[in-house]
């Protein structure tokens, strides 16, 4: 069985989320081809060729694919997909933007956020903000799905020696145009891939206090920073830091929740973390029910003390 | 121009759902139902565009059981002009919903088609993109800002790592993110007025759509329980546990 994996990248580097999708593809079993659709993306294709378990890389290099516009990339993928049994992409904003369009062009149903492979056509996925897990069976000729990266251990980024083939045909659908992009620059690790995440909620009180209290802790641990929806809505931090059903899904080794009560919506984004620590002044906070270790106290004194003792 | 907004009836966002003992589905008996939060944001955006004079008529459509009329009335109370219910008791998949919506779009010929980015029950995040593909139209998903300019629309999208702005030719499909706007509350006089607004009832077959999906849910289970944690009394104890017991730092 042949599997087409859509690479996540920025035309320069291959995003690690792709490695988790290749891992899911290997669980299904079959020949894995990675598609790199971009502009000036030879380096990405070369990196993809080294990924363990990849047998072929397709490089579609054209200005039409420079910004991953769904209209152009989906048409390309749907065209290529006819030779494959599976089309998989990471559950990133890019994957979720493109893949349903591919599925509709192929006239097949799609599976979002695969968290487990049960058999060749049966998969598990979370529904209702992760409060239920559905097992779904697809009877489609081509199985199209996005893979939740945190549910599969990444394959090695090296060790492979796939061939790179150019895909000649490139078409601009002329339905959309890229205007601009505003990427938040950060020295810290990427939130969804970080080994340790430090998150703040409404309890941190203000944007200034968020940084005064939590920045030293994140620095000390080399951690990514996250936030609850309450902290984002209150304007403490930008929205790309939101962890939850409507924000990012994380599953780090260590998740430290500071001043977060633990609403259903937030738990959906972090409850698969290996170890959860809650620091909260409220002994009854729902977050304590999912925490491995919880400390009741004022975060303004507890967190600096923690920093000094690490 | 005309705007079409799709809304879905779902379990209220604050309800903690329970899985049925036979693992067939989530138990929805006597559970509070509401308009999906992302759909509400789509309605609000259409109403704001009407208040600016950009949109002249807002048609709201829902596909689902008879009771989904309540959600259409809610959207009308927020400012939608008329409603269409495509009544179906089947558990429709995203592709089937997109095909029905395509039929509605072809009938109504709207310039702007607004949907939520995902429904909080199935968490699929598919319908808007599928509809755009079926109509061969441009799509702007996860919108946090919408600016209509003549026969084009500029949309700022929330992407991993920041924001991206794209421009689409109309007609176009836009799916809303949480940050797009803050939906208003329906005032009582508007709720009363909404009762008198026109609401057509149709069936999937009216649009030539066969409602069976090739994606079957064979089991629904509660997620694995985490084992109970411990309360630590001091920062020293926390550091010691993280280093020696959990071994994560």
From TrEMBL, chain A:
Keywords: Electron transport, FAD, Flavoprotein, Transport
Domain Electron transfer flavoprotein alpha/beta-subunit N-terminal: 3-182
GO annotation, biological process: fatty acid beta-oxidation using acyl-CoA dehydrogenase
Annotated GO MF terms: electron transfer activity; flavin adenine dinucleotide binding
Cofactor details (free text): Binds 1 FAD per dimer.
Binding site for FAD: 202, 228-229, 242-246, 259-266, 280
Cofactor(s) essential for the protein: FAD
Pfam families, per database record: ETF, ETF_alpha
Record bears the keyword Transport: yes
Presence of the UniProt keyword DNA-binding in the record: no
Membership in a protein family: Belongs to the ETF alpha-subunit/FixB family.
UniProt-listed PANTHER family: ELECTRON TRANSFER FLAVOPROTEIN ALPHA, ELECTRON TRANSFER FLAVOPROTEIN SUBUNIT ALPHA, MITOCHONDRIAL
Subunit structure: Heterodimer of an alpha and a beta subunit.
Protein function: The electron transfer flavoprotein serves as a specific electron acceptor for other dehydrogenases. It transfers the electrons to the main respiratory chain via ETF-ubiquinone oxidoreductase (ETF dehydrogenase).
Name assigned to this protein: Electron transfer flavoprotein subunit alpha
UniProtKB/TrEMBL annotation, chain B:
Domain named Electron transfer flavoprotein alpha/beta-subunit N-terminal: residues: 23-211
Cited InterPro entries: ET-Flavoprotein_bsu_CS, ETF_a/b_N, ETF_b, ETF_beta_N, Rossmann-like_a/b/a_fold
Domain of life according to the entry: Bacteria
Entry keywords, A to Z: Electron transport, Transport
Gene Ontology molecular function, alphabetical: electron transfer activity
Single GO BP term: carboxylic acid catabolic process
Needed co-factor(s): AMP
Keyword Transport: yes
SUPFAM superfamilies: Adenine nucleotide alpha hydrolases-like
Matches recorded under PROSITE patterns: ETF_BETA
Assembly: Heterodimer of an alpha and a beta subunit.
Family in the record: Belongs to the ETF beta-subunit/FixA family.
The protein's role, per its UniProt record: The electron transfer flavoprotein serves as a specific electron acceptor for other dehydrogenases. It transfers the electrons to the main respiratory chain via ETF-ubiquinone oxidoreductase (ETF dehydrogenase).
Protein name: Electron transfer flavoprotein subunit beta
